[in-house]
Amino acid sequence: MGKLQDKVAVITGGVSGIGAATARLFAAEGAKLVLVDMNEEKGADFEQELKSEGINATFIKADVTSEKEVHDIFTTAIDTYGKVDVLFNNAGIGNVKPTEELTYAEWRKTVEVDLDGVFLVAQAAIKEFLKADGGVIVNTASMYGWVGAPGSAAYNAAKAGVVNLTRSLGLEYANRNIRINALCPGYIDTPILGETDREMLTNATPMKRLGKAEEMAKAVLFMASDDSSFMTGNSLVVDGGYTAQ
Ligand code: NAI
Question: Distance from the CA of 213 to the center of ligand 1, in angstroms?
Fold first, then answer.
C-alpha cells in the first residue's frame, strides 16, 4: 500500500525538474497523475514515457496565469479520474536581473506566474476540495521566500508572497479538512537554473552541492501524504543549510 494509494494528484510544472521527480515518486506511492504545464512538447513526451512504464498519467497543457485554463484543469481531472485529492502547486519561472535594469513588465510577469498563478490554482483546488470534503495542497515557494538576496527582487517578493499565502490559506481552511503547506527549496539542479553559474551556487550552499529534484520530491510526499497529518499553513525549507547561515 503506497502513501498515496489511489489518490489523484494534480502537479503544475509537472513535466520538468522538481515537478517531474515528484510525479514519479507520487506514482511509485500509488497516485494517479494529472500533469499540467505550458510546455506541450515536453508534456506529451513525459506522458508517453510514464504510460509506457504502466503509470496512470494525463498531461494537460495549461498556463497557470489563465483563470479559464486553470478552471479547465480541474474539470478535465475530475472527468478523467472522478476526483482530485492532492495539488502540488509548483509551476514557476526564475528572474535574475539588477533592479535598476528590471522593467515593470518583467516584474509583473514574474509575480503573475510565481504568485498569482499559485493563488489561481490553489483557489480552483479549494473549490473542489470543499465540495469533496477535503484535500491537500503543497505550494512551491523558495528559500528566497524566507531570506532576501540581491538581483532577484521580483522572484523573492513573489516567493515570500507564496509563504504568507500558504499561512493564510492554511488557517482559513484548517477546520475544513484541507491542509495547505509550502516547499521552500534551496538551489536545486533543474532546468530553471539556466545559464546561472552552478559553481557559484554550490559554493554558496553550506553542504557544498546543489540539491536534487528527487530530494525535493521526498519532502513534497511528506506534506502531501498523511505523514504530515497535523501540519498546515507552514513551510518546509530544504536548502542544504543555506538559510541557517
Ligand atoms: P523547471 O523549469 O524544471 O520547472 C518549472 C516548470 O514550470 C516548467 O516545466 C515550466 O514549463 C512550467 N511553467 C512555467 N510557467 C508556467 C505557466 N505559466 N503555466 C504552466 N506551467 C508553467 O524548474 P524547477 O526547479 O523544477 O521549478 C519548480 C518550482 O521550484 C518553481 O516554482 C521554482 O520557482 C521553484 N524553485 C526552484 C529552485 C531551484 O533551484 N531549482 C529553488 C527554489 C524554488
Answer: 11
Please list the ranges in the chain whose pLDDT falls under 70: none
Write down the mean pLDDT value for the chain: 98
Q: Is 155 a catalytic residue?
A: yes
Distance CA 30, CA 26 (A): 7
* CA dist., res. 154 & res. 208, Å (int): 26
Give the C-alpha separation, 118 to 159, whole Å: 10
Residue to substitute in 40, 119, 190, 223 for testing ligand 1 pocket (most ligand atoms within 8 angstroms of CB): 190
The one-letter amino acid at 243: T
What distance in Å separates the CA atoms of residue 49 and residue 2, rounded to the nearest whole number?
21
> What's the pTM value of the predicted model, to 2 decimals?
0.99
Rounded distance from Cα 220 to ligand 1 centre (Å): 14
Cβ neighbours of residue 103 closer than 8 Å, sequence gap 6 or more: none
Domain ranges of the chain: 8-236
Residue at 115: amino acid letter = L
Convert the pLDDT of each residue in 153-211 to its tens digit.
999 999 999 999 999 999 999 999 999 999 999 999 999 999 899 999 999 999 999 99
CA of 13 to the centre of ligand 1 (A): 6
Q: Does domain 8-236 have CATH number 3.90.180.10?
A: no
